[in-house]
Design goal:
CATH architecture of the largest domain: 3-Layer(aba) Sandwich
Strand order of the largest sheet: 6-7-8-3-9-10
Strand content: 15-25%
Number of domains: 3
Largest sheet: 6 strands, mixed
Structural class: alpha/beta
Helix content: 25-40%
Distance between the termini: 51 Å
């Protein structure tokens, strides 16, 4: 590892940004050095995304300064930021699916050969060199369509390096990656650091931050709080700085009476996706569905809720059998599904908060098929208060909310329907530690009220901390049914990685 450079490549001092009456950044300070990986952490709504967009040229700061190599810069466009050597690698890259890997890397700036024709051989050779330098193997001629999120991120990094990016900003890059893909990304990040580039790593996953990064900056409520070397701080200290208080109970699990079966799934099968899935969730019980990425957990949830079909097996709620591929019947029976991808599947981002909250219950609160704005806002307001949704106004669009508040809006939408069964897929993915604690507390309260909860989670601490039982899937099959007192990281991971003896 190279020693960090003495002068910051990129430095922001006292940066602020407001949108009308909403203050997104009060005062932000950040210094990125070549040869170093710098973590930026904070609760949802702390101002991290706004700061990134200022660095990327999407937003122009209201006050404060931004310098590159000690020279003040004022980016008006993303093109100006890229030209200055700043690249952002987002959680979900946006490649052109029908173009090849090579064409995506050189989109809009293809090298020209004789007779002003695109020099495809030179393009391909450069992409091979870039990928070899990153230590990854991706066919430069294959279309981008079908590439994993991990491979798409690597393509974006290769593109950034081809543009001689000196600062690479990775915004929640591991949220949708498997453990092996995370390790590969980290190897690439370390190579880039050792080449002398400056990296900014934004994540809610503290284990990754402490494994990868050299320095960490904390933001809270749009303001800079602190910067310290990773080696001299700890997770409890960072959490305290982020939330301004001690989060002593991230998993506030309470013991509640377990009642009769509410959701019963028997021998559910969809060839090639999942096979012979049988499970029961009782009143007051939180059952975790665990397993590695690709094990089929979300697919089972979608089938139970009627989004996707299944070819054999049964789903019953309180003894009543449901039809396959019928979400209307599932909702009428009292099943609610909070999907993993809340932005694409759980919300209408261009609609208001109040419209999203009332979406699942509009037929029950309308008058002759019509809902007044007053009715809608009154209903939504009560749920927004219950779930402590932080929004400037109920008529704000859902797309303007932080990830944690979007999750609360999706929860409010389904809880408003008074479900008997709550299926919640990755309940705290992409949200901050303070909001995680609130979501976990809410799940415990719902279980205490007698709701049956099926929780899908890739975070092992969450599985072990919240579940009364852990069901583990491996390659589309259930491989273990583990009671809370027997659930350990070892027992869960063994069942998730070794098909072994499947549950009856």
């Amino acid at each position: 590892m190279n020693s960090p450079q003495l002068q910051p490549v990129l430095q922001l001092t006292g940066v602020s940004k407001s949108f009308g009456s909403v203050v997104a950044l009060r005062t932000a300070d950040l210094a990125l050095f070549g040869g170093s990986i710098h973590a930026l952490v904070g609760e949802n709504g702390a101002g991290k995304s706004t700061l990134v967009k200022i660095m990327a040229g999407l937003y122009h700061r209201d006050s404060g300064s931004m310098e590159i190599d000690g020279q003040v810069v004022n980016f008006r466009t993303t093109a100006e930021a890229k030209a200055a050597g700043i690249a952002v690698i987002y959680q979900e890259p946006t490649l052109f699916p029908d173009l090849s890997v090579t064409e995506n890397v050189f989109m809009g700036r293809q090298p020209m050969g004789r007779f002003r024709r695109i020099d495809r051989a030179a393009m391909r050779a450069e992409v091979v060199r870039l990928l070899d330098g990153l230590g990854v193997r991706i066919d430069p001629d294959r279309p981008a369509d079908g590439l994993s999120i991990a491979d798409q991120q690597i393509i974006e990094i290769a593109k950034a390096i081809s543009l001689d990016a000196r600062v690479l900003i990775m915004d929640e890059p591991t949220a949708a990656l498997s453990g092996i893909e995370v390790e590969r990304l980290f190897a690439v990040a370390r190579n880039l650091r050792d080449e002398g580039r400056a990296l900014l790593f934004i994540s809610h996953r503290f284990d990754e931050v402490f494994e990868l990064c050299d320095t960490i900056t904390v933001m809270r409520d749009g303001s800079y709080i602190s910067t310290s070397p990773i080696a001299t701080t700890s997770v409890p200290e960072i959490v305290r700085l982020m939330v301004g208080r001690e989060v002593t109970e991230l998993f506030p699990k309470t013991v509640v009476p377990i009642g009769e079966p509410v959701l019963e799934v028997s021998h559910l099968t969809r060839p090639g996706v999942f096979s012979d899935i049988s499970l029961t969730v009782r009143s007051g019980e939180i059952v975790a569905l665990a397993g590695l990425v690709g094990a089929g957990r979300s697919e089972v949830a979608r089938a139970v809720f009627g989004v996707d079909p299944y070819t054999s097996g049964t789903v019953t709620v309180r003894g009543k059998r449901l039809s396959s591929h019928d979400t209307t019947a599932a909702m009428a029976a009292g099943i609610a599904l909070v999907p993993e991808d809340r932005r694409k599947q759980g919300l209408v981002l261009d609609s208001t908060v109040s419209t999203n909250v009332t979406d699942a219950v509009r037929r029950t609160i309308d008058t002759f098929g019509l809902i007044s704005k007053r009715q809608e806002n009154s209903f939504a307001q009560s749920w927004a208060r219950k779930l402590e949704v932080k929004t400037a106004a109920l008529d704000s669009t859902a797309g303007t909310l932080s990830g944690g508040n979007q999750q609360k809006v999706v929860l409010a939408k389904w809880l408003a329907s008074n479900p008997k069964v709550l299926i919640i897929d990755e309940p705290t993915r992409g949200i901050d530690v303070g909001t995680k604690s609130e979501v976990h507390r809410m799940m415990c309260e719902l279980a205490g009220d007698g709701m049956a909860i099926l929780m899908i989670s890739s975070e092992l601490p969450e599985v072990l901390g919240m579940a009364d039982r852990v069901l583990v899937m491996h390659e589309g099959r259930l491989t273990a049914d583990i009671p809370r007192d027997k659930a350990t990281p070892e027992t869960v991971m063994f069942a998730a990685t070794h098909a072994g003896e499947e549950v009856a």
